[in-house]
Amino acid sequence: MTKAEQVATSRRKGSQTRADIRQAALSLFTERGYDATSMREIAEQLGITKAALYYHFDSKEAIILSLFQENMRALDDLLDWAASQPFTPELSSEFLGRWIALSARQGLRTMRFAAANHAALRTVMAARQGGPLERVDRAARLILGPDAPLADRLRVRMALLSVHNAVLAAQGTEAADADILTIATQAATLLVGDLFPAPRLPVPE
């Protein structure tokens, strides 16, 4: 193996370790609470040393910020794709479907954490700009155009938040991820109604 290949392999392993840390921490934060979970417990959950954990993240706050930044980057990629397309009712339908699917695929566990740790999340995200609502606003404008009536903008914003709302509604129930995605899609369809065709979820690869 060449030196370049060794570096590439090391980077891939490091990236996977960071992803594993984020998911383990998220599970513990959701189950036990953010404040009640220590960095030591996260390391033990993964079977690594605290030193190895601190090599990738120097605090619980850093883990959460990394997780939310990853989710925001995925939304930004989707927004940039929509902005590059011709504005049509079919685009609005496809874009909303992709947004719902992305929210469900990458955001369900994050949303469950947020629902269970409101105070901690407010502290971690305090004074940070460019959050989810800014992206919801941009998405609504891409779906409707810049001059849509307020009522239509609110309906579309509610549709964009349908997965978030379904996660909140599912707390304390036996709802699985697939149930949440189904209900969120149905709710979004009802909300956009006569504005454009029902959101079309992308076909799984």
UniProtKB/TrEMBL annotation:
<dbReference type="InterPro" id="IPR009057">
    <property type="entry name" value="Homeodomain-like_sf"/>
</dbReference>
<feature type="DNA-binding region" description="H-T-H motif">
    <location>
        <begin position="38"/>
        <end position="57"/>
    </location>
</feature>
<dbReference type="InterPro" id="IPR023772">
    <property type="entry name" value="DNA-bd_HTH_TetR-type_CS"/>
</dbReference>
<feature type="domain" description="HTH tetR-type">
    <location>
        <begin position="15"/>
        <end position="75"/>
    </location>
</feature>
<protein>
    <submittedName>
        <fullName>TetR/AcrR family transcriptional regulator</fullName>
    </submittedName>
</protein>
<dbReference type="Pfam" id="PF00440">
    <property type="entry name" value="TetR_N"/>
</dbReference>
<keyword id="KW-0238">DNA-binding</keyword>
<dbReference type="InterPro" id="IPR001647">
    <property type="entry name" value="HTH_TetR"/>
</dbReference>
<dbReference type="InterPro" id="IPR050109">
    <property type="entry name" value="HTH-type_TetR-like_transc_reg"/>
</dbReference>
